[in-house]
Amino acid sequence: MMTLKGFGQDKSSAMKKSLVKGLAITLTLGSLSGITQAAPKALWSIDNLDQPESVLVDEKNNALYISSINGNPVELNGKGYISKANKKGQLLDKQWVKGLNAPKGMAQVGNHLYVADMQQVHIIDIKAGKLIRSLSAPKAKMLNDITATPDGTLYITDLLGGDIYRLKDNQLAPWLRSNQLSHPNGILWHKGELLVANWGYPLNADFTTKTPGSLYRLNLEGQTLTPVPTGYQLGNLDGVVALNDRIWISDWISGELYSLDGKERIKQLQSNKGLADIGGSGDTIYAPMMWDNKVIAWQVD
């Protein structure tokens, strides 16, 4: 029997009943009732990386940017780096930008690449391939994923600290904290709102959790969170992308890749532990396999 833990005390009884009904529909239509699709097809892989955590697609320059932690995920060791590749799987420059700490999620605004890295957000000049500035968030514990809105405002999750930060007008500051988002991870600008993937709770030393994380829609104006029924208690959620009118989401602990489409939740693929912050373009998912030290391109329906 499902419960509505973590949905907040401001939800009315009627809203909760409606959500439960929606969840029941989801469970009859999604993969939990045995519906599956043909597995995504592996196109290529880039090997010999160092704990790749995130892949970002640069459509304008036909490039992929890959962040590699290269050490303990919370260590400030100066060994982290960003690789540059193309969509065909050719590694153009393994250490295109180096000297970072534990870089994770990325976002692009114009000719600048923004990188979440522990207590900093780095700004990289894409044309020059150089780090030009770093903004600090001294109270953050582990800045993780980052997304940009059409006006260039950026939102960054702090997985360990629990806040969502906002970078606007060169000012980086906490913007939202909610009991529903104890450990926010993946974040994506989608159809005028933010999609935020919660990791789960409580967080153990090995990053496992007792309760799986859920996916939420976040309205910017009212800072209101609405659970996505098909993303309810889905897993230890990491990357989120939107392709082919579907939301694709990765589970870092289990290595599972899911698609959410209307009332369906479909397990598309079972990979290895460490399936991190996926990127996507067209019909391709670019998947950093953190503990396998590689990035795999999967063709999806």
Give an overview in words.
By secondary structure, the protein is mainly β. It has 1 helix and 26 strands. The strands form 7 sheets. A 4-stranded antiparallel sheet has the order 1-26-25-24, with no helix packed on it. It has a 4-stranded antiparallel sheet with strand order 2-3-4-5, with no helix packed on it. The longest helix has 17 residues, at 13-29. Mean pLDDT is 90; it is low at 1-34.
How would the blueprint of this fold be written?
Blueprint: H1 13-29, E1 41-46, E2 52-58, E3 63-68, E4 80-86, E5 91-100, E6 106-109, E7 112-117, E8 120-125, E9 130-136, E10 143-148, E11 154-158, E12 163-168, E13 171-177, E14 184-190, E15 193-198, E16 200-203, E17 209-212, E18 215-219, E19 224-227, E20 237-243, E21 246-251, E22 256-261, E23 264-270, E24 279-281, E25 284-289, E26 294-299
Antiparallel strand pairs: 1-26, 2-3, 3-4, 4-5, 6-7, 7-8, 8-9, 10-11, 11-12, 12-13, 14-15, 15-18, 16-17, 18-19, 20-21, 21-22, 22-23, 24-25, 25-26
